[in-house]
Design brief:
By secondary structure, the protein is α+β, with helices and mostly antiparallel strands. The chain has eight helices and 23 strands. The longest helix is centred in the middle third of the chain and has 17 residues, at 160-176.
Length: 442
C-alpha cells in the first residue's frame, strides 16, 4: 500500500518560476514547453505570426507565456500564468510568476502550492537583489526544492568559472534561509542548452538538464509520515429508506493517512471517536491518504459541522490567539485594530488584528517597525485574536493546515495570506515593542 501512496503522490509536480527583468524567464518557459513538445500547432503558429509582426525572424518563445497585452507590449511578466504539460515520466503544473518587486504578491500566490521553484539569473549579472528576494520568498513559503537556472551562458562564452561563482554565492545564501536542496544548472534558454537537451558547449557540466531534474526530483512527502488532518467540508445525511441512519463527513484529506479503526479527535471541540468507514468514489475503502477527497464515517454520533477538523495522531491545541507571518496582497493597508474574517481550511471566523509586530525587509531579512501597518507586497508578522478557537499547525510543519487567509468582511476581498508561526530563523533585529493588552472585540 505504501508503494501506491508514493506513486500517486509523485505523479504530479507543481513548480514555479521567477526571475528578474530581462533574465529570460519567459523565454526559458517557452523553450521548456516547445522542446518538450507541449505546444499545440495553433499556439506555435500564433506565436510565429506575432513574432513576424514585430519584425523578428525566429519565433519569440516568450510569447507562449506572456499572455496579457501589457506583458507583450512591455516585455515583462505581470500576472501569474499557469501552464499544464506532461512528459512520459511526469505531469506538471507550472506557475510562471512575475519578478518585479511590485508583483511580489503574485509570486507568493504562484509559489504557495509549489514543490519546486526555478530561480533564474543572468550569467552576466549574477546574483542580484531580486534573486535574493526570490530565494527568500521560496524559503518563506517552505518550497522544498530550488533550482538555480544560470541563463545566457552563451553570452559569457559558456565559461565554467562564471557559473561556479554564481552557484556558490546563491547556494550559500539559500542555505542561510534554511533551503537545503538547491541544484544549479547552466543554461541558454535562447539556444536551448541544458533546458531539455544536454548542451554540446558545456561538457564540463555533468548534472541533469532542467527537464531531467524536473522529471526525477523526489516530490510529495510520504503521507504516512504526517499526522492526518481532515477538514470537514460537508455533512451528508440522506435520511432515505436505503440509508436511514447514514451520517458521513465529506472533505479533502489535507495531510496524512486515515484508516478504518483510527482514533480521531474533533477540533476545536475536543470530542473523540473512531473511524468506522471511509467512502471514496462511491465505494468503501479501508484507507485514504492526502490529497484524496473522501467521506468519513465515525462510530459515534457527534455534533460535527462544516469547519470542524478531524485529527489523528498528535493534534494542535485550539487557540484564539494566533501569531503568524503574513504576505499582504491588497491595496488596502492592514493595520492594528482592523476587524477581518479569517479563513482556515473550511472554517471562517471573525478576527481582530491586535498588532502588526514588524515588517520584514525581504532583501536584508531585517525587521522594520510595523506601527504603520502593512501595505501591498509587504511581508511581516502579526498577532490576531479570533472569535472562535482554531486548530492550526505551524506552517513549517504543515503547509495546508498552517496557512490561512484574511478577508475584508465588508466586500469579501482577500487581504492577506498568512502562515502560522515565524518565517525565518535568520530574521535579524527586533524593533517591535510588546503588544499592549486589549479587550476582545468578539
Amino acid at each position: 500500500m505504501s508503494t501506491t501512496i508514493e506513486t500517486t503522490a509523485t505523479s504530479l509536480l507543481r513548480f514555479a518560476t521567477a526571475g528578474s527583468v530581462d533574465d529570460g524567464k519567459s523565454t526559458l518557459v517557452g523553450r521548456l514547453l516547445h522542446d518538450s513538445k507541449s505546444v499545440l500547432a495553433d499556439q506555435l503558429e500564433a506565436v510565429e505570426h506575432a513574432s513576424r509582426s514585430r519584425g523578428q525572424d525566429a519565433p519569440d518563445l516568450a510569447l507562449l507565456t506572456d499572455g496579457l497585452r501589457a506583458e507583450r507590449e512591455q516585455g515583462i511578466t505581470i500576472d501569474v500564468a499557469y501552464r499544464y504539460f506532461a512528459t512520459p515520466r511526469r505531469r506538471f503544473i507550472l506557475a510562471d510568476t512575475p519578478g518585479h518587486v511590485q508583483y511580489t504578491r503574485n509570486m507568493v500566490t504562484g509559489a504557495s502550492t509549489a514543490e519546486l521553484a526555478v530561480v533564474l539569473v543572468d550569467a552576466r549579472n549574477g546574483v542580484v537583489e531580486q534573486t535574493r528576494r526570490h530565494a527568500a520568498v521560496a524559503a518563506l513559503l517552505r518550497v522544498p526544492h530550488v533550482v538555480l537556472a544560470v541563463n545566457k551562458m552563451d553570452l559569457v562564452g559558456y565559461a565554467e568559472p562564471v557559473f561556479a561563482a554564481i552557484a556558490a554565492e546563491f547556494t550559500a545564501y539559500a542555505a542561510s534561509l534554511g533551503v537545503e536542496d538547491v541544484l544549479a544548472v547552466p543554461i541558454s534558454a535562447l539556444a536551448g542548452d541544458n533546458v531539455v537537451e544536454p548542451s554540446a558547449h558545456m561538457d564540463w557540466y555533468g548534472g541533469p538538464t532542467l527537464l531531467e531534474h524536473l522529471e526525477t526530483v523526489p516530490v510529495g512527502s510520504d503521507p504516512s509520515a504526517e499526522p492526518a488532518r481532515f477538514p470537514v467540508q460537508y455533512v451528508i445525511r440522506p435520511q432515505t429508506e436505503e440509508h436511514p441512519d447514514y451520517r458521513g463527513y465529506a472533505g479533502q484529506l489535507a495531510s496524512g493517512v486515515l484508516r478504518v479503526g483510527d482514533p480521531v479527535t474533533v477540533l476545536p471541540s475536543g470530542l473523540t471517536s473512531t473511524v468506522a468507514g471511509i467512502d471514496a468514489l462511491g465505494r468503501e475503502t479501508d484507507i485514504a491518504w492526502a490529497p484524496q477527497s473522501v467521506t468519513v464515517r465515525l462510530t459515534d454520533d457527534l455534533d460535527i459541522s462544516r469547519g470542524d477538523l478531524l485529527a489523528a495522531g498528535p493534534a494542535p491545541a485550539p487557540t484564539k490567539d494566533i501569531e503568524a507571518t503574513v504576505s499582504h496582497l491588497n491595496e488596502r493597508p492592514l493595520r492594528a485594530g482592523d476587524k477581518v474574517l479569517l479563513k482556515h481550511t473550511t472554517r471562517t471566523v471573525r478576527a481582530l488584528v491586535k498588532e502588526v509586530s514588524y515588517r520584514i525587509d525581504i532583501d536584508t531579512l531585517e525587521r522594520r517597525s510595523g506601527a504603520e501597518g502593512l501595505t501591498v507586497n509587504d511581508i511581516g508578522h502579526v498577532r490576531l485574536r479570533t472569535a472562535e478557537p482554531l486548530a492550526l499547525d505551524t506552517y513549517s510543519a504543515n503547509r495546508r493546515t498552517g496557512s490561512f487567509l484574511l478577508i475584508d468582511p465588508a466586500d469579501g476581498t482577500t487581504l492577506t495570506a498568512g502562515m502560522a508561526g515565524e518565517a525565518f530563523e535568520t530574521v535579524r533585529g527586533d524593533d517591535a515593542p510588546d503588544a499592549p493588552e486589549e479587550e476582545d472585540w468578539v
